[in-house]
Amino acid sequence: MLVFIVGLLLMLALWVRKVRGAILISIVTMTIVAVVVEAIGDLGRAAERSGGWALTVPTWPEKFHAPDFGTLGEFNLLGSWDKIGVVSVLLLVFSLLLADFFDTMGTMTAIGAEADLLDDEGMPPHAERILVVDSIAAVAGGAAGVSSNTSYIESASGVGEGARTGLASVVTGALFLVTIFLAPLVAMIPSEAAVPALVLVGFLMMQQITGIDWTDLEIAIPAFLTIVLMPFTYSISVGIGAGFVAYVFLKVVRGKAREPAPVAVDRGGAVRRVLRDRPDHPVADLSPRRSGALLRHFDPPLGGR
Known about the structure:
By secondary structure, the protein is mostly helical. It has helices at residues 2-16, 22-41, 79-84, 86-114, 127-143, 155-160, 167-179, 183-186, 191-206, 217-233, 236-253, 262-274, 288-295. α1 packs across α9, α4 (86-114) crosses α5 and α4 crosses α11.
C-alpha cells in the first residue's frame, strides 16, 4: 500500500509539473523501490502473509525463457459448430460482438474526447475505420491463439502525454513485440507500482463529465448508470448497455418514444457539415429530423464518406 501511495503522489507531482513521460517514470521508479523493499523485508504475497504484495512479488527473474509460440495458428474455425451446436455458436458470436462493439465505442469516444478529436456531434472521426481495424485485430488475436485484441482505455495515458496521430500506437505495438522476449522482466512489476497510472487515467476520463447536462434527467440518469456500472461490474459493455437501456426506458416513460435518436440527429448533422460553407442554402435551416430525412434521398448519400 505504501508503494502505491508514494507512486501515486510521485506520478501526480510529475504530471502537474508537465514532465514528459510522468507515468512511465513513476512506474519504473516505484518498481525499483518495490524490488528493494522486497529484498529487505521479504514480504511475499498478501495471500500468504499480512502486508504482502497484492499480485506480483517484485523479485529479479532467475532466468529468461524464449517465448513460446505453440498456440500460433492453433484454432479450428468451424470446430465449434459440431461441438456445441448452431444456436449456441450464434449466441456466443452475438455476445462477443456486443461486448467488443460497446468496448470499442466507449474507448474510442472517451479517448477521442481526451484528445479533443470529436466532431460537433461528439463522435470520433472515421469511426467506421476504427471499428473495422478493431474487428480485424480481434480476429487476428483468435488466429494467434491469444486473447481478443481490442482497443484499451489505458491509451488515454498516451493521449495525455500528447499522442494524436497514431504514431504512438505504432511505437507501442513495436515495443510490445520487444517485450515478448523481456516478459520475465515486465512480469516483476508489482500492481502497486502500475495501478497509479490507472488512477490518473480515471481522472482524465472523469474530466469529460463536465459536458453532461445534469439537469436533464433523460441524459443524466443514463450517463450516471454508465459511469458507475463500468467500474462496479469491471465491464465497459455493461455500463454502456445499461446507459442505452435506461435512455430508451426514460424516453418511453415520458412519452417521447418517437423522438429522433442521437444517431438520427447525427445524420442530420452530416447535412449541416456538408453545407456549412453554404449558409444561404435552404437546407441549412432544416431541423435535425427533416435534414436527416432529406439525407436519405441523396444518391450517393449527402455527407457520406
